[in-house]
Amino acid sequence: MFWRVVVASLAYRRGAVLLSIVAISISALTLLSVEHIRQQARQAFSQTVSGVDLIVGARGGDINLLLYSVFHLGSASRNMSYQSFDALQQSADVAWAIPLAMGDSHRGHRVVGTNANFFEHFRYGQKTPLQFQQGQAFKQTFEVVIGAQVARKFNYQVGDSLVISHGLGQHSFQQHEQHPFTVSGILAPTGTPVDKALYVSLAGLEAAHRPAGMALDAAIIPDSITATLIGLTSRLKTFQVQRRINEYRGEPLMAILPGVTLTQLWDSLNVMEATLRTIAGLIFAAALIGLSATLLASMRERRQELIIMRTLGARPSFIILLIQAEVMLIATTAIGIAILLLWTLLSAGQSVIMQWLGLAISSDFFTANVGLTLLGLVAASAMVALYPSYRAYRMSLVVS
Q1: Calpha distance 120→129 (Å, rounded)
Q2: In DSSP terms, which residues pair with 225 in a beta bridge?
Q3: What confidence score (pLDDT) does residue 303 get?
Q4: Residue 128, beta-bridge partner list
Q5: Helices (DSSP H) in 47-193: which residue ranges?
Q6: In this structure, which long-range contacts are made by residues 241-248, counting pairs with CB atoms below 8 Å and at least 24 apart in sequence?
Q7: Residues paired with 227 in a beta bridge
Q8: Does 173 have pLDDT greater than 60?
Q9: Residue 392, SS3?
Q10: DSSP E strands: which ranges in 159-275?
């Protein structure tokens, strides 16, 4: 009986109720989206590289070294010598080392010089190895392996030729046209910066900068590289090796722990995260305040309704519960619609998000944080209903 009265009351004012549901749905969708994407972005960043014990580069900022070596953001102020890299990989405590040489690009995408260790030892996610969607790793000097997003964006296939450019910009005036590269393989999608990069051998990257006609040797090596990823024989030696590298006398180097530096990166972004969440929360609060204002504005119109209820024997407490139930029904319906919309958008837009942002966003957003957010939305809705309920209660006392 009670809920029939609630539904009938809302149906009588369906125009205002529908507008309130739309406003709350949009605001709840915004808040849930921000929370889910924030968590997914954090998870994606943390899973970009896995199983790497140390990242080594020229001495500078920890976060900057992480950004340009793993996420391909920014650039190194200077390189480390290949001689130092060779000394590191010869160390008894180092199980494997992956050299990374950057500074060139192809149509706005990073070209990374490396060796076979990259395809053998690089891991992402839960220590997932790289897989080839087509072809194989480079074997010849002028062969290139491309990420899934690069292949999809430019419609490259194994056997196609491409030219790399000097510099990291979208457009370059110095094309290495004298030494085109042939696509030998296309990596399977990873949802990491690997998808947006191209990989060539160190010899190939060095040879690309030499004039046409010069004798080239597949064994040529560069004078320097940008950074190196290191896996140790024992993680118990991590801090010992890190200290040894930081005190290396050959040149000023630094070694960072990826997990620790990533935590520092997120700490530096806390203000931006808090700002986004605050803005989304304010949007939801504005929608709830609008609902409260609509209820208050309708109280005079509902005076006759309250008189009839009191005449039929309804207690003041019944009036309070009626207003509370109306608000909660509107809010929960709107939140349910927001959840359905978010799930639909994530399910339908996963490929688009992967293509444009390079992030693998899951459609399963029912996490502990999202659950707490939903509880907060319901609690806020109940609080907003307090004052309209009190006004209805006071009015019911007058008409009694």
Answers
A1: 8
A2: 80
A3: 65
A4: 124
A5: 62-70, 82-89, 116-121, 148-154
A6: 241/53, 241/54, 241/91, 241/93, 241/94, 242/54, 245/54, 245/56, 245/88, 248/84
A7: 57, 100
A8: no
A9: helix
A10: 161-162, 165-166, 181-187, 198-201, 224-225, 227-232, 253-256
Is residue 95 classed as helix, strand or coil in its secondary structure? strand
Contact between 94 and 240 under an 8 Å Cβ cutoff? The reply is no
Short-list 53, 109, 107, CA closest to 358: 109
pLDDT digits (tens, 9 = 90+) for 242-273: 999 999 988 999 999 998 888 888 877 778 77
The CA distances from residue 210 to 90, 171, 198, 215, 216, in Å, are: 29, 21, 20, 9, 9
Q: What is the mean pLDDT of residues 148-171?
A: 85
Which of 135-149, 306-320, 351-365 reaches the highest mean pLDDT? 135-149
- Condensed to tens digits (0 to 9), the pLDDT of residues 362-374 reads 666 777 777 787 8
Residue 226: per-residue pLDDT? 95
Residue located via tokens 């609690």? 379
Domain boundaries, the chain: 2-45+269-399, 54-256
pTM here?
Answer: 0.75
Cα dihedral across residues 307, 313, 316, 317: positive or negative: negative
266: tokens are 């997120």
**What is the number of other CB atoms lying within 10 angstroms of the CB of residue 67?**
17
Q: Vertex 276, ends 273 and 280: CA angle to 5°? A: 140
